[in-house]
Design brief:
mainly beta, 3 domains, twelve-stranded mixed beta sheet, five-stranded antiparallel beta sheet, flat, disordered N terminus
Length: 373
Amino acid sequence: MNRILVSTILLSISMLYPAGAAEAEGPWKQVLVLRPARDEGPPMEFDYNFHNVLPPFEKEPPLAGKVVARGLIPTIPPTPLIRNITDRELYLKADHGRDFTIGPSVTYQSQCEDGIHVVFNDLRVFTQQGSLAIPYTVGAYTYQMGFAGRLFVTSGWSGQLERDGKSWKFTIVDNLDGQIDGQDRLHLTDTRQSTLASYHDCPVPRILFLDGHTYRLDFTFKPAESEVVLEVVLTEVQLPLGELKVEADGCRSLDLRDDRQVALLSNPGGVLSVPAGDYRVDNCVLRGQGMPLRFAGSDRVVSVQPGQTTSLRVGLPLSNTVVAARDRNLLRLTYQLVGAGGETYHYGGLVGLPSFRIYQGPLRISKGSFGFG
């Protein structure tokens, strides 16, 4: 009788609490699979001139009578290349070897020249990560002679991030080392087709604050059929929050960064809750100025503390400032375009450049422009 009573009680309890109902739910998590896509990262400087000139590789193509320069693309291991300046060609050893007479060696022709620079587009390279070959596309911009200039990674991995009715194109551009960290770039593009659409470009953070949610980001390269994909795991985390009162007239998007996290604010304004931290303004994208302006930098640090409110002002109006310094008979003029919070912007156009005129009394004695940037 007692055995039957105990069984009845256990059965009743199991009916009241179905399996798993009493277990605490884990944090929100989403796995994004980013696939190869066309994009572009910031320039990487290289210089193989003068004291950095490389000696000849183990074995090279017949180059007698040619003017040549040698270099390395910073994949892992490095990718050797030879620039045949005479014939405007570039030989790339795709398998990282130093013997150009065996194995895969690809020849590229320069795409365009302006009398100063030579451009090689769509160089195909890869980084070896264990048994996985991670592919990249690179562009090289160098001077007519020697081998110095800039490399641009022109490929990335892209996918769609959706939550709370919002959708972002989520893109990562790696710096060729096969490791996703703060040396790489995160591009987030609002998929809305409207004037409110936002765009963010920032170093890849470990912690990302976006649309009121805080995520930890984890990255893994994986093979998938005939391509290599980048898997991103976003795990929501709970961090102490503070309040930030933002005045950002004309600002379409605002990126704040401290040592461990990035807070991305779209169409910012008013009092916002953000994770506590000591932030610098990493980027401010202005809306519809009719001229190509690019955020240059800011020295201000904004400290957001739990339970406190801090103020931040950026954006419009913009002020033209010129600092004049004299060195004997040389007058040096430094121009800056300054925002409402003291941040600076670059002018990126070739038409309508900022200009100046110098007068001695009513007589104009000089004029000029400040050039690109």
